[in-house]
Write a structure and sequence with these properties.
Layout: H1 21-36, E1 49-57, E2 65-74, H2 79-91, H3 107-120, E3 125-133, H4 140-146, H5 159-179, E4 185-190, H6 199-216, E5 224-228, H7 237-255, H8 277-286, E6 294-303, E7 310-314
Parallel strand pairs: 1-4, 3-6, 4-5
Antiparallel strand pairs: 1-2, 2-3, 6-7
Helix pairs in contact: 2-3, 3-8, 4-5, 5-6, 7-8
C-alpha cells in the first residue's frame, strides 16, 4: 500500500492558478491548516487515477445555506473500503437500497449508517465541504453566462441550475488542482439530477468542467471522465462512494445556520434537540479526530461585516455523544 498516511510533507499545492476569489481564500485557509497540522490532508499524488464524487444540499427555499460536498480519493487504493462496504451490504443493506441523507427514514438505512461511515474511514482521500450563505456572489463564469458568453448549449438552462453547475465545477476544480499530480486520470461522478439529466447534458457539462478544471491546474493531467452514478457497473461501488458526499452535504446543510465554526473556547452549542439524529451521527463521524486514511474538512462562507465582505471559517464538526 502506498504511504497514504505520511505527514512529513505538504500535500496542498497552494501555488496553483486560482481564477476565482473565493477559491483563492479557501486555498489559503487550507494551506494554513496544513501548516498548523501536517496530518490535515492525505497524499493523493501517488495513484494513477483519482475519483471525485460530489453532491449538494440546501437548494430548497427554506435553507439559508447551500452545501457542496466532495470526496476525492485514490481509486487504486480503495480495495479495503470496497470489502468493508460490501460487508455492510451483505449484513444490513441486503436489498441493494441506496444510502442517502433524505432516505434515512427507513430502519435499514438508519441501522447501516454508522457501519457504512466507519467503513468509509479507510478510503484514502478527503471529504471537502463548503457551506455557502445564499445570496453571496458567484464566479465570473456565471456573470459571463448572463451575457450569453458561455457555449450555446447552456443558453437554455435555468439560472439556478447553471449557477449550481458552475459552483460545483469551481469547487471541485480547486480540490483537484490542490491535491492531484501530473499525469493522473480523473473520474468525476455527479448524481443524476438536473445538471446531468441526460446524455446530451453530460456531454455539454464535460466540456465545461474540463475547461474550468484546466484553469486551476499547474500541471497536465491525464484523461478526464465525467459521468453520473448511472456509471455504476452493478456492484454499487460508485453509488456508495457518491452516497458519502450526499450524507455529508445533507448534514452540513442542516447545521450550517448554527454557529459551530472553529473557535478558541471549548464551549459548544448543544446540538441535541436542534438537529436530526442522522445529522448527529454524521457529525460525530466527521468530527472524530482519530487519524484515518479519509480526512475531513468543512468550511462556512458568509458575510463578515456590514459592507458585505466574505468571511470563510473552518467548521468545528465535533459532537459529543453522537453515536
Amino acid at each position: 500500500m502506498k504511504n497514504i498516511l505520511d505527514i512529513g510533507s505538504r500535500h496542498w499545492k497552494g501555488e496553483m492558478k486560482l481564477p476565482w476569489g473565493l477559491a483563492e481564500s479557501l486555498s489559503r485557509l487550507v494551506t494554513q491548516l496544513e501548516l498548523a497540522k501536517p496530518a490535515t490532508l492525505p497524499n493523493l499524488r501517488l495513484g494513477r487515477t483519482l475519483l471525485l464524487t460530489c453532491d449538494f444540499s440546501g437548494q430548497h427555499a427554506g435553507a439559508s445555506y447551500e452545501s457542496f460536498s466532495f470526496l476525492l480519493a485514490d481509486l487504486d487504493e480503495c480495495g479495503p473500503w470496497n470489502g468493508l462496504r460490501a460487508e455492510v451490504r451483505r449484513r444490513i443493506l441486503t436489498d441493494r437500497r441506496r444510502m442517502s441523507f433524505k432516505g434515512m427514514n427507513d430502519y435499514r438505512r438508519r441501522r447501516a449508517l454508522l457501519p457504512f461511515l466507519r467503513a468509509a474511514n479507510v478510503i484514502p482521500g478527503l471529504t471537502f465541504t463548503v457551506a455557502l450563505k445564499k445570496g453571496l456572489g458567484v464566479p465570473p463564469e456565471l456573470a459571463a453566462a448572463e451575457g450569453a458568453c458561455l457555449p450555446q448549449p447552456f443558453n437554455s438552462w435555468s439560472s439556478a441550475t447553471l449557477r449550481k453547475l458552475v459552483l460545483v465545477s469551481h469547487l471541485g476544480a480547486l480540490l483537484v488542482g490542490g491535491l492531484s499530480a501530473k499525469g493522473q486520470d480523473l473520474w468525476w461522478i455527479i448524481d443524476e439530477d438536473d445538471i446531468a439529466a441526460n446524455e446530451q447534458r453530460i456531454r455539454d457539462v464535460t466540456s465545461l468542467v474540463a475547461r474550468i478544471t484546466s484553469a486551476y491546474l499547474g500541471h497536465e493531467m491525464g484523461k478526464l471522465t465525467f459521468g453520473t452514478t448511472a456509471c455504476d457497473n452493478g456492484d454499487l461501488f460508485i453509488e456508495d462512494m457518491a452516497a458519502i458526499s450526499d450524507l455529508v452535504a445533507g448534514a452540513v446543510s442542516e447545521v450550517a445556520g448554527l454557529d459551530i465554526t472553529r473557535r478558541i473556547s471549548k464551549v459548544r452549542i448543544p446540538l441535541r434537540g436542534h438537529v436530526s439524529r442522522k445529522t448527529l451521527n454524521i457529525l460525530g463521524w466527521l468530527g472524530n479526530e482519530v487519524l484515518t486514511p479519509l480526512r475531513k474538512l468543512a468550511f462556512l462562507v458568509d458575510r463578515g461585516d456590514a459592507e458585505g465582505r466574505i468571511r470563510i471559517r473552518g467548521m468545528d464538526l465535533s459532537v459529543e455523544n453522537s453515536s
